Amino acid sequence: MAASSSAAASTSCAVAAEANGSTSTIVATTKPTGHHILKIDGYSRTKAMVAAGDSIDSSRFHAGDHAWRIRYYPNGTDRSNQNPDAISVMLELQDAAAAAAAVKAKFVFRLLNKDGEPVPSRTYRSSVHSFPSSDGFKNWGFLRFITHGDLEKSGHLADDGFAVRCDVTVMAGIELRVEPASSLAVPEPDMHRHLGRLLSAGDGADVTFRVAGGEAFAAHRCVLAARSPVFKAELYSRGGFLRPAAAGRPGTRVIDVDDMDAGAFGALLHFVYTDTLPEMASADVPGMARQLIAAADRYKVERLKLVCEDKLSRRVVADDTSMTPTPLSTPTTMTDSTTTGDDPQRRQRRARFLGKFVKFGACFSDRYFLPLI
């Protein structure tokens, strides 16, 4: 029998917890790992001479500041002869009596081929075990490491000999590692600001929208197509509504928008580029929101529609009895959600009314408006 050993540092996987800008990591640490190779010369003779339940032991080797040995059972560990056709391999802690407490370790047994390389199909890994166990046993291992028949047919026997390698990793304990908070402040995402400036400057614009009244808006087809399937179809399909290049903007094309005023179309483009609505006076919100809901429907910008509907619903008086057109000269009681309530049923009633209001809003005279909060 011959033995060799090696050592290397290793750690188990860690679980991290982050709070208040700092990080702490719970780490299961290990001691240096050791391994031992046990060579069996004369496999047939050992099988014939050693009874079931009896072992041939390796020399001592060290791993994780402890002494160990491999116990090789040519005919299994069971003296009752229940598994006489299998080879058993066990790992035994040699200095258990000297240890202040049970030693926790995990191990790997590998059958080696004729070239000394591990055989993947005969590699067995253990979980973490206590040496000795709570029952006082000092050995842990694999009772049916390989059967005699499988070994003899495997081709890994060389001159009636083979080798087994055992790697042992001793668990050192649990420690908490605290990492200081990073001193580098990472700014909030600001892509919307960059895209907003791109829209305002018009750099690289390749399409111009001309709205009622003659005002023109320069934009970028790739941005519009990414945000709206309708824009994508209009701008990139063969049947797109494109006119020749706009004056002063060679390489761009012109699309006429006849059913939306400049303010509403500018707000639509602002939302498409920045995912936010532009600042507007409180009195302008209802009219602008209604136009933008129609625009969102036309261009399939769903989030814009939801944002505008929410703004309108929050401004509509929740009481169903108050939801009638009121002359501008009629005083309206100012209320808020703390007096009217904002429960789900009220919000549903608002939404139902809102749909009717948006649909038939064009029928209202300019002299009438909904009571606003």
From TrEMBL:
Q: Which residues form the BTB domain?
A: 205-281
Signal sequence extent: none
Classification via Gene3D superfamilies: Apoptosis, Tumor Necrosis Factor Receptor Associated Protein 2, Chain A, Potassium Channel Kv1.1, Chain A
Per its UniProt record, what Pfam families does this chain match? BTB (PF00651), MATH_2 (PF22486)
Annotated spans, Disordered: 320-346
Q: Where is the composition biased (Low complexity)?
A: 320-340
GO terms in the biological process aspect are:
protein ubiquitination
List residues of the MATH domain: 33-168
Q: Which InterPro entries match?
A: BPM1-6 (IPR045005), BTB/POZ_dom (IPR000210), MATH/TRAF_dom (IPR002083), SKP1/BTB/POZ_sf (IPR011333), TRAF-like (IPR008974)
Q: In which pathway does it act?
A: Protein modification; protein ubiquitination
> Which SUPFAM superfamilies does the protein's record reference?
POZ domain (SSF54695), TRAF domain-like (SSF49599)
Q: Which PANTHER family match?
A: BTB/POZ AND MATH DOMAIN-CONTAINING PROTEIN 1, OS07G0655300 PROTEIN
What protein is this chain from? Uncharacterized protein
